Automatic annotation (TrEMBL):
It is a multi-pass membrane protein. This is Iron complex transport system permease protein. GO terms for molecular function: transmembrane transporter activity. The keyword Transmembrane applies. Gene3D superfamilies: ABC transporter involved in vitamin B12 uptake, BtuC.
Amino acid sequence: MTVTQTRPPLPDTASLRRPAAVRLAWLAVAVVVLSALCVASVAFGVREVSIDDIFAGLSGDTSGVAEAAVVARLPRTVLAMLVGAALALAGASLQAVTRNPLADPAILGISGGAALVVVAGIAFFGLSDPYAIIALATAGAAGASAFVYAVGSLGRGGATPLKLALAGAASSAAFLSLVTAILLPRIDIVERFRFWQIGGVGGATWDRIGVALPFLVVGALVCFACARGMNSLALGDDLAAGLGQNVARTRVISFVGAVILCGAATAIAGPIGFVGLIVPHICRLLVGTDHRWLLPFTAVSGAALLVAADVVGRLIARPDEVEVGVITALIGAPFFIWIVRRQKVREL
């Protein structure tokens, strides 16, 4: 008698997705949390203000000290939102393009490369035009990422996630050491870059935000436009190509969007690490892996994380401040170790 073996049925992919209602609920929760954090960012600092002071400041009243503090904190809050959203989007895009769970602008050395080129341009060539500085940071981010990928591709097995992470960490340390070496003998600019080098949003102005905003919007739109293509990349190059997806073009365009976001964010706020690593992983657990939902949720959550880090940095050392780059590093380093131990740096 012939025994026919049947293959177990494949799981229904629809059952593996998050329902749209669940995703909308989480997105609404993220927006509410971000709104509450923005209120806290305006309210808390060296001088605490009341709700009445907040409304008075928002209406344009700067007659009192509290109202003036509210007005001064508004651009700082907006900058933290924009930079957090940009870094989170860049991290999610890089993870999709490289299928590397450890991909992050700071870990891969992209932020460090952007910082090095900006500091070198200002110290050696006297650059002062803000648009030129952002363009220079974007070019530095692109060059650093190409260098890290080339180094990580050496040897057997090509560019594995672990090799890319190690090459990026070593390159980032080298880039930031060179930044310090350039700044130390130049007393005239070292004070200007002392806090920028750590990564922070203090001293934000509407002019600085206005310069960076077009670059951030363009980078975000490019990433959002590639969301469907990122979903195809998650299936593997061969299957994505079989479905009609131009794999090389999707990778290049998504990468360009991530580099623009990283370059502009680094130029305006300094090299802030781990936002692009932490946020996408948490967001995948909540809304799934569909990038059409993941990218907007990542942007809102990244903005919330950096605003929260800024508020915490202002509260734990009053009347002084701890820069957001320090806070995100304290959160991100244990998270990085957890990802390595849990996933054993498999591909996404």
